[in-house]
């Protein structure tokens, strides 16, 4: 028996809208003992996916390539040796680079993680990239206590919104910085509703004395913008604090004066979720983290990002992005 598959593929590196194509093929439903057949329900598009397609990401896949690292899928068949999953289970990837922009696929069962059937589709499809990024940055660099402060730019990004929600859950102050825009008051209200203590535009933050006895200087700052935005964040990091860079959406380098290291003893480091996942593949903490995140979704402590579900046939729209929303490919 065979299964028809619709999938996105690129045979060369380049601009995603130019090199990615929609294709069809058939795959056998006859499974090896360790394999599972999955019906992909929804696949998210992340910036790293698009950078990978251009060939500029640190990891280059072999071509031709089905992109995608994140999705939610239903198990439709299992090999004779699969004991941890059953037909009907919902699963998400437990490893990067599986190629998730497809309607169906045959995969190794060990590369997938079972989740409760009650999880919202958007939350499930976006579970394994942005929430772990936010979670690990808040857990791994500084021992934060209730009442401490975290500072971040791009507070309206998917990671930024999760950071605010986790800080609210854990009793941590979270100050966010965003670019100015026509609907800035609405955006500020939205982000405060998610858990941000204060939200400033880049211009407001640069000229405001934000921190005081009632709002302590941040022990941890999270930067995914770079350039002048990052340099402004550094100004307010507490003595002995930590400055973590996990992206550079401005594409501008960050200039850090020697005084930051010598006189203020600030530690500057980076975080790359892909590398953390690879180094911690068998670490029980990874399973604990995913279960903790899922529990927070179920309890209402985390909210799935605002998303637009886009049929795979409209993949050009999905690759182009929708302002202010996470693009998620669907297959029905």
From TrEMBL:
One Pfam family cited in the UniProt record for this chain: ADH_N
GO molecular function: enoyl-[acyl-carrier-protein] reductase (NADPH) activity
Alphabetical list of SMART domains matching this protein: PKS_ER
InterPro entries in alphabetical order: ADH-like_C, ADH-like_N, ER, GroES-like_sf, Mito_Enoyl-ACP_Reductase, NAD(P)-bd_dom_sf
PANTHER family xrefs: ENOYL-[ACYL-CARRIER-PROTEIN] REDUCTASE, MITOCHONDRIAL
Superkingdom, taxonomy of origin: Eukaryota
GO biological process, one term: fatty acid biosynthetic process
EC number: 1.3.1.104
Lineage: Eukaryota, Metazoa, Ecdysozoa, Arthropoda, Hexapoda
Species name: Nyssomyia neivai
GO cellular component: mitochondrion
Keyword annotations of the record: Fatty acid biosynthesis, Fatty acid metabolism, Lipid biosynthesis, Lipid metabolism, Mitochondrion, NADP, Oxidoreductase, Receptor, Transit peptide
CDD domains assigned to the protein according to its UniProt record, in alphabetical order: ETR
Membership in a protein family: Belongs to the zinc-containing alcohol dehydrogenase family. Quinone oxidoreductase subfamily.
Subcellular location field: Mitochondrion
Catalysed reactions, semicolon-separated: a 2,3-saturated acyl-[ACP] + NADP(+) = a (2E)-enoyl-[ACP] + NADPH + H(+)
Chain ranges of the Enoyl reductase (ER) domain: 14-328
Protein name: Enoyl-[acyl-carrier-protein] reductase, mitochondrial
């Amino acid at each position: 028996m065979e299964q028809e598959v619709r999938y996105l593929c690129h045979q060369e590196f380049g601009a995603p809208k130019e090199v990615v194509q929609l294709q069809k093929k058939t795959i056998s439903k006859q499974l090896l003992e360790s394999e599972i057949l999955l019906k992909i329900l929804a696949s998210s598009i992340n910036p790293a996916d698009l950078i990978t397609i251009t060939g500029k990401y640190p990891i280059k896949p072999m071509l031709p390539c089905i992109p995608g690292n994140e999705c939610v899928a239903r198990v439709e068949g299992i090999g004779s040796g699969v004991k941890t999953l059953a037909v009907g289970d919902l699963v998400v990837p437990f490893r990067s680079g599986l190629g998730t922009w497809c309607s169906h696929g045959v995969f190794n069962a060990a590369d997938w993680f079972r989740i409760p059937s009650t999880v919202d589709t958007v939350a499930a499809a976006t579970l394994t990239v942005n929430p772990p990024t936010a979670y690990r940055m808040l857990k791994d660099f500084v021992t934060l206590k209730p009442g401490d402060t975290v500072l971040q730019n791009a507070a309206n990004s998917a990671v930024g919104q999760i950071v605010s929600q986790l800080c609210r859950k854990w009793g941590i102050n979270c100050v966010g910085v965003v670019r100015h825009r026509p609907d800035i008051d609405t955006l500020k209200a939205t982000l405060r509703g998610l858990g941000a203590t204060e939200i400033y535009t880049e211009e407001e933050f640069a000229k405001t004395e934000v921190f005081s006895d009632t709002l302590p200087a941040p022990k941890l700052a999270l930067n995914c913008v770079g350039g002048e935005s990052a340099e402004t964040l550094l100004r307010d990091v507490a003595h002995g604090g930590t400055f973590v860079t996990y992206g550079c959406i401005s594409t501008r380098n960050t200039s850090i004066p020697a005084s930051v290291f010598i006189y203020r003893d600030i530690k500057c480091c980076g975080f790359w979720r892909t590398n953390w996942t690879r180094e911690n593949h068998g670490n029980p903490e990874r399973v604990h983290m995913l279960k903790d995140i899922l529990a927070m979704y179920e309890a209402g402590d985390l909210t799935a990002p605002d998303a637009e579900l886009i049929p795979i046939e409209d993949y050009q729209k999905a690759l182009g992005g929708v302002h202010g929303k996470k693009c998620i490919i669907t297959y029905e």
